[in-house]
Amino acid sequence: MMRDLQEEHLGESLVEIRHATVYREMQCVLKDLSLCIPLGCSTVILGPNGSGKSTFMKLLTRELYPVAKETAAIRLLGRETWNVWDLRRQLGMVSADLHHDYLGETPGLEVVLSAFFSSISLYDHHAISHYQRAKSYEVMDRLGVASLQDQPFAHMSTGEQRRILLARALVHEPRILILDEPTTGLDVSACFQYLEILRQFIREGGTVILVTHHLHEIPPEIDRVVLLNDGHIQADGPKREVLNAPSLSALFGTPVELLQRYGWFQVVPAASVS
Ligand SMILES: Nc1ncnc2c1ncn2[C@@H]1O[C@H](COP(=O)(O)OP(=O)(O)OP(=O)(O)O)[C@@H](O)[C@H]1O
Ligand SMILES: [Mg+2]
Question: For the residues 16-36, what does the mean pLDDT come to?
Answer without folding.
Answer: 95
